[in-house]
Every structure is written in structure tokens, then in C-alpha cells.
Amino acid sequence: xxxxxxxxxxxxxxxxxxxxxxxxxxxxxxxxxxxxxxxxxxxxxxxxxxxxxxxxxxxxxxxxxxxxxxxxxxxxxxxxxxxxxxxxxxxxxxxxxxxxxxxxxxxxxxxxxxxxxxxxxxxxxxxxxxxxxxxxxxxxxxxxxxxxxxxxxxxxxxxxxxxxxxxxxxxxxxxxxxxxxxxxxxxxxxxxxxxxxxxxxxxxxxxxxxxxxxxxxxxxxxxxxxxxxxxxxxxxxxxxxxxxxxxxxxxxxxxxxxxxxxxxxxxxxxxxxxxxxxxxxxxxxxxxxxxxxxxxxxxxxxxxxxxxxxxxxxxxxxxxxxxxxxxxxxxxxxxxxxxxxxxxxxxxxxxxxxxxxxxxxxxxxxxxxxx
Length: 371
Description:
Strand order of the largest sheet: 6-5-4-7-8
Strand content: 5-15%
Number of helices: 14
């Protein structure tokens, strides 16, 4: 079916003069027409109520602007950069206090991974061995959301780690995200089943309960965290715990607060010689983390069209319901001509700028936010 879809769009582009393509997502079958358009140098855009991107051969994936975070941040006036980082610091402290949802830029669920609720008993063993936490991804989600990784999918990555675990003298742990509502409630049990089978096969790895808080894991002592490209790369780095990514196409790559292997051979070397990397924590700079957070979650404007995501999600009844007709009810009830004109102006400014992503510069929010 996917191959037929590719042939259909390829033929369509060859037989029709297409001036522009606007889509909603760059992975899955949604992304097929967008990638073909980019290859043909057709102006291509991808959008939702939280982003608006211009795709090209340098940035073929949505959210792919992370390779330029540092350069863009430098363009912010020096006297405003400190204010920007303070905003990030405040948001992160909220996140680590157990607050989820839009307040802390975690819109998929109100459920936090950093609750202060202690699990009944300590599950991280006291030992002198290196302790590793694997933070898996949902198997149904797009493994290639930012491009190619060291592994073709998340299961192949986990299997690789399982084989490494059998040859090392580390304490290995694995924890899935807390139970989420909506579409995650449908798919997460599948991920849980696969993970349970995985730890049976590779029994040196211990599976922690989904509701085992990251705050408790950190307090009990963990030395390294493994992810493909997850938000733990930011979160654990904040606590000076080294995080190792399994891809160079991860949003933290522009900074030095994570360990980013060059390739799979380098990745294997790092995993087999973790004792050499225990001092990496000294290289982690909190200012880099705050700068990254600002660029990832604030500068590239997630409220470019819906100016209050928290209010919108409350109205429609959660993350999933923003993709139903309820979003139109919310839009109509909050519509004003002034808002409409401001949005049109920001789109025009973004379009004429040639930038890849709409930001708080295009709608002048940067003045209000950092004044």
C-alpha cells in the first residue's frame, strides 16, 4: 500500500504543475508527499496548531531546526539572553516538581514522570557497579521522526542493548513512561507487553514500574541513561547524569550536555567502557540546558495560532481531542478579527523571511516575553 502511494504521488507530480504543498506530519504516509515535493524543490510546508515549518533539502523533517539552535540564540540581544534562560529555569523547576501538561511544555499528558510520590520500596540496588537506566520509546511512534538513526527501529535498538547487557557487569534498569490517557492508553499496553517479554529474554535488565518516579530513580543513584532521542536527554542532564543518545539526529545534538556517539561502532565502544565516561558529568553546563530549553520549547512559537494551549486542551478535553471537531468550537468561541489579522501578519512575516520555522520573532512576542 505504501509503495503504491509513493507511485501515485510520483506520477501526480510528473503530470501536474504543483506550486506548493502543505502537510501535517513528516513521518508516516503523511510525509511521503512532502518528501517528494522537497526533492523536486517545490515550496513545502508542514503545520499544526503548535508549529509552522518550511521544509527544504537542508531541513526535511518537522522540528528539524535543532541543528541551528546555538546560532539563532546568539542573535538574541545579550541583555535578553539571561531573561530567556531564567524562563527556562522556572519551567524546568515546575517540571521537576511533578507538574505535567502544557504548563511545562508536555502537552501529550498531564501525567508527570517526575512526581514526588515515593514508590513503596527501593528497587535500585545498592552496589558499586555502574547503574544504567534505559528509557524506551513507544514502538508505535515514529523512530525516524528526525531522520535516520543507528537502528532501524526502537525494538532493534533495545535488542542491541539486551545483547550488550549480557556481556557487561553493570546493573541494568528499564522504565516505560507513566500510564497516559488517550491514544497512549490504547497503544501503551502493547509497549508494556513487548518490554515484559524483552526483560524475560534479557534477564540482566530489571523493569521498573511505570509509575516509578524519575525523582526517586535519581535519588537512589543512577549513573547513565540510554535513549534514542528522548526528553530524558535534557532532564537527566540537568541533574548532572550523563545521557547517551542512539542517534545523531536528536534534538540535543547542537549542545554538549549529552554523549553523542559518532556512529554505531563508537556507540558500542562507549557502552563497553562506561567507566571512562563517568567524569562526563563535569562537562554538563546548566546554562546550555536552559538555552536549549528556550529554543526548543519557547522561541519556536507553539502558540502561533492558539494563544493558550492549556486553555484549549482543557476545553476540548485533552491532547487527543484537539484532532476532533471540538477544536473548531474552541476556535470560533475565541475568534476575533484582531487575532485573525495578527496571525495573518505573522504568517506573512515568516513567509517573507525565508526562515524554516515560525518563531516569537515573526509575531513580535519576543518583545513582550523578554521585556
